[in-house]
Fold this sequence. Notes:
This protein has 84 residues and is mainly alpha-helical. The protein contains 4 helices and no strands. The chain has helices at residues 10-16, 21-37, 52-65, 69-83.
Amino acid sequence: MNRPVQYFTDEYLEYCQNLTPEQIVEFLEQFRRIAHAGSHSPSKLISIKVPENLLQAFKFKAKAKGQPYQSLIKELMHHWVMNG
């Protein structure tokens, strides 16, 4: 089984130095859930404002890739969380 490896920028490491122990535990718990839950985790409906031209371009590229754009957004979010 491949384990995710996360890389951190110097700015992020500096930010993390100011986290409370409770915030660190919460982050680790969320990371564990994401790493092990896969697609079995319940979803939450969100609302986000995105510039219209960016959204249209994203939808176009997702369609060209043969993938629903919302699924691609989730895939990109997961990749970013797991790989930084």
